[in-house]
Amino acid sequence: MNRKMNGDCEMSKVTDEIHGQIIGITDEERVKIDAFERRMYSHDLASLPKMMELGFKMMPDLVVIPKDAEEIAEIIKIARKEGIPVVPRGGASWGLGGAMPVDGGIVIDLTKMNKILNIDKNNFNVTVESGVTWKKLYDSLIKMGYMIGSYPSSAYAATIGGWISTGGVGVGTYKYGSAIDHMESLEVVLPTGRILEIGESETSTTGGQDLSRLFFGAEGTLGIVTKARLKIHPAPEEIRPLSYGFDNLKVLSSVVKKMTLSDVMPLHISFLDRFHFEFLRDLGIEIPGSEINDMLNIALEGDSAVLDLEEEALDKIAMTNNGKKQENDIALHEWNERFFELRTKRAGPTATLGEVFIPISNMAEMVEDIYKLIKKMKLRAAVTGMISDRNTAVFMPYYLSDERKLIRNLVSLSFIKKLGDLAFTHGGRPAGQGLFFPGNLKKTYGPGRDTMMDIKSVMDPFDLMNPGKTTEGLTRFGIPIPTFAMNSGMNMMAWIKHILTKDKKVST
Amino acid sequence: MKIKIGGIENDLYACLQCGYCTSICPVYNEVGWESASPRGKIFYIKQLTQKSIWDRILRRKIDINDALIKRIYQCTNCGACEEVCHVNNKPYEIWGLVKDWFYANNIDPPEILKKMQSTIETNHSPYVSGFESGSVADRNELLIKKYKLPEKGEVVFFVGCVSSYLLIKMMNSALKILRKSGINYTVLKDEWCCGNILGATGQGKSPTFQKSAQHNMAAVKATGANTLVTSCPGCYRTFSEMYPKYASKPDFEVMHFTELLVDLIDNEKISFKKSFDKKIAYHDPCELGRLSGIYEPPRKILENIPGIKLTELIDNKKDCNCCGNGGGLSSLEPDLAMNISLKKIDEVLETKADTLVSSCPNCRHGLSNAILEKKKRMSTNGGGDLGLDMMDITELVGKLV
Ligand SMILES: Cc1cc2nc3c(=O)[nH]c(=O)nc-3n(C[C@H](O)[C@H](O)[C@H](O)COP(=O)(O)OP(=O)(O)OC[C@H]3O[C@@H](n4cnc5c(N)ncnc54)[C@H](O)[C@@H]3O)c2cc1C
Ligand code: SF4
Ligand code: SF4
Q1: Quick check: ipTM above 0.90?
Q2: Does residue A393 contact residue A129 with C-beta atoms inside 8 Å?
Q3: Looking at A23-137, which runs of residues are DSSP E strands?
Q4: First-to-final CA distance of chain A
Q5: What is the mean pLDDT of chain A?
Q6: Nearest C-alpha to atom 46 of ligand 1 is from which residue?
Q7: Interface mutation vs chain A, best among B68, B86, B316, most A CBs within 10 Å
């Protein structure tokens, strides 16, 4: 093949001819191969050290902005013929290296496929292109008296396709479930270039195998989601935020357990510890209420009369456990801040966030162990999280560091790995695999992992759809990162962090 | 090797790369490429400040190139990014400092902006010629001959270039209102372009900007006024923010015309003789609203006008979408600015208002052109009238007092 040098002195997988073909499918305006633009697409949320480029070719060879599934299908056919990796990219707001290449190739920027195609008021569903953000969808629906049950707290940037593909939980998951619970049908482009419409027909609860489920959490490794038909609900009469302060997260955990056992069904439950508020105060960010300790935030949703009763029930549970009910303005402020969980980052200025799922019954023990780990690793950290259903607590602790202090920062990274280990000990698991944690797949799914690998190899035999992610963990030379190497490396780093001096102003 | 640009490092590192700003940026939403988004620009500038031996080893080409320079100037200064920023960054101010750094390091702004500087230097206006009131001298003469304004006054009305040369109606309306109010006012004998466009494009330290600042502030002093009022939010911010930042702090109060109008209404110095039976949508100019926090005065004025039915745009006040004409974008990339304006017009049409009112000559100019453009495009499709007019709040008030 006639390969050419492309910007950054890298060998490009995209020849002039392929470049021309892709322009032919789309148009000149929507295709870029200059190094400046490609550099912009060489990363996602995570700030990675450039040394990573020794092992990974994070710069794509070409970036294209398609306008529909047909264009994507044609591009994928070319990529398949020429053996070029394809990486779907939504809002790039995920931090596990999902939307960036590890071995160059073509990045498909889906954010311009952002039309809300149809709001079906009779059948209570909405059809959207996958590049629509959750915020835009939410706002458009509310305007018309409808709402989508849940959305990620990154709704400003996260796309429909991105949240479906990462399989996450978010605001409203407690009551309405996750993206998979909204999905009625999907349009996807398979690694063969075939366009499929899969899922349920207009009537929601039909039987039979529903292939759309396969794409939930597939992290772009099985195909590209281009459209989705999602369930919607009537907008509620009221959304009522409530906040309660507690002496510590352990007490808070026991209250949460009681609340999940009650028959109240809040829209959303989340928590923030005192260190989070301390970081905010350090930054001089105004927060209403002076004595905020560990905070439980709840949003109720529905008819006001019902909410009165629900509020009363929750008050009772909280008060009997020394909970301090906060003023309405604090609760409202906390609710409005749901999109801005990492405001404290400036205090780092680097913030690294872990995410693990734990059975509610083990929540209090997990709290204790996370704080122990933070103390042992001498980190400046805060513990935040949410309750995603009656039996699952999601912990999202983060630590602040400074990426300019390379070694210290790198060794702190092992906190994320250790957090995952803790999750496994408490019967839970880390969230998402991406580029960094495919090694967890076996632990999480057991033999299910092998079936996942089988599905991947059947659907994408040449391994071109977002290669190196989810089920694997590949470097640019196609050499897998063995789980034990990743693990032992991380353990070593944790140990080094332990012997380093404390980070300034450590939590605990 | 590393590039050090003062005042931005903390913001670059604080940035989470969450992309909230990207989703809201009017320029990005038109251009579509990550390099045009605030997030993308921050990412790249940070790379510049982190250059090290590793870039050579890995053959990473990170440099100040034409594509980057183009993107840095491609900003309407609308401030929308700041509103949604996770970590309270002001991305447009980061570009501001980068542009200042470019200027200090002899990296030229795009040709058209450079030319503007020399035009302002020689003409004391950003326009070459051929506009409604001719040259600066012609405008000065008009003010002296037609309005016979005194040399001294308590309040100076700073006309601004758009109202002086492109939208002379706005100037006449403002002067009519001032005359009717009976307050002691005047204008500058020789008003020069305030230099907003230079301050916004890294040329605040240029001799031209410095001269404009000194000249205008001295001229205000010569009138003995303690207050300067202007109907242009750009001029307003030049006096209130750019002069202090790049030159010196004015020793008189700076007011926007809408603030003065509220005073005049409250003190019954003006009253509305006629009613205006129309449905109005109000557009918050970025430099007046988000960047100066003036949201209520224009609304208060409109509410006082008999007959008016005031509707709000869905995105209003701090969420109001930019008209596309700030930061020199309408000169730099007229097509891009026009596309942003056209989107704005669509948004206004959704409210079914028949009159769009703003309080900025720049918005007024850009948006009326967009209405014309839209009509033109409709008529080629056999369409017709939009049923939408555009007015500045001074024109509207001027018509009714
Ligand atoms: C402040 C903040 C808060 C967050 N809160 C939450 C939260 O509450 N819940 C949560 O789950 N996550 C959260 N996240 C993480 C992230 O925002 C979400 O995972 C989000 O859904 C990712 O969407 P995206 O469009 O940005 O996807 P990207 O980051 O662009 O992509 C994510 C993965 O999906 C793939 N992908 C993207 N689009 C498609 C598509 N159309 N078809 C196939 N594959 C695709 C990509 O290849 C990649 O592997 C948060 C992030 C931030 C910064
Ligand atoms: S000020 Fe407006 S145009 Fe400029 S970067 Fe921010 S959002 Fe974009
Ligand atoms: S919103 Fe703020 S933190 Fe997020 S990408 Fe933009 S500048 Fe960075």
Answers
A1: yes
A2: no
A3: 31-32, 62-64, 86-89, 106-109, 116-120, 125-129
A4: 59
A5: 89
A6: A99
A7: B86
| Ligand 2 centroid, distance to B358 Cα (angstroms) | 20
| Residues in contact with B14: Cβ distance below 8 Å, sequence separation at least 6, in sequence order | A345, A346, A348, A349, B87, B89
Q: Is A90 in the pocket of ligand 1 (CB under 6 A)?
A: yes
The answer to whether the pTM exceeds 0.80 is yes
Contact call for residues A177 and A150 (beta carbons, < 8 A): yes
The angle at the Cα of A459, spanning A454 to A462, to the nearest 5 degrees, equals 95
Taking the C-alpha atoms of residue A428 and residue A421, their distance in angstroms, rounded to an integer, is 9
Crossing angle of helices B168-181 and B257-266, rounded to 10°: 30
CB-CB under 8 Å, A349 with B65: no
Say if ligand 3 is within 6 A of residue B21 CB. Answer: yes
d(CA A74, CA A189): 10
Task: Find the A181 Cα to ligand 1 centroid distance in Å.
Answer: 17
Provide, as residue numbers in chain B, all residues whose Cβ is less than 8 Å from the Cβ of A340: 86
For domain B9-104, the question of CATH label 3.40.1670.10 is answered with no
Say what percent of chain B tops pLDDT 90: 88
CA A266 to chain centre: 22
Architecture of the domain made up of A116-234: 2-Layer Sandwich (3.30)
Atom of ligand 1 nearest to the CA of A167: 11
Does residue A1 carry a pLDDT above 70? Answer: no
CATH number for region B272-400: 3.40.50.1860
- Pull the structure tokens for residue B42: 């921050």
What are A274's two structure tokens?
Answer: 């005192």
Determine, for residues B19 and A40 on separate chains, whether the beta-carbon distance falls below 8 Å.
no
What's the topology of domain B125-265? Rossmann fold (3.40.50)
Q: How crowded is the C-beta side of B317, counted as CA atoms within 13 Å? A: 6
Same fold, B9-104 and B125-265: no
Identity (one letter) of the amino acid at B299? R
Measured distance CA(A407)–CA(A103) in Å, rounded: 26
pLDDT tens readout for residues B287-300 = 999 999 999 999 99
Q: Would you list the domain boundaries of chain B? A: 9-104, 125-265, 272-400
Cβ(A355)–Cβ(A480) below 8 Å: no
Cα dihedral across residues A412, A337, A158, A458: positive or negative: positive
Q: Is residue A172 within 6 Å of ligand 1 at its C-beta? A: no
Asked whether the beta carbons of residue B88 and residue A93 sit closer than 8 angstroms, the reply is no
B203 neighbors B113 (Cβ within 8 angstroms): yes
Which tokens hold the place of B281? 């949508």
CATH code for the domain defined by A16-109: 3.30.43.10
Tokens of B35: 């390099």
Q: Which two tokens stand for residue B159?
A: 């006309």
Q: Is A91 in the pocket of ligand 1 (CB under 6 A)?
A: yes
Q: Where are the domains of chain A?
A: 16-109, 116-234
Tell me which residue has tokens 């944690």.
A437
Task: Render pLDDT for A111-160 as a digit per residue (tens, 0 to 9).
Answer: 999 999 999 999 999 999 999 999 999 999 999 999 999 999 999 999 99
- Ligand 1, atom 1: closest residue by C-alpha: A154
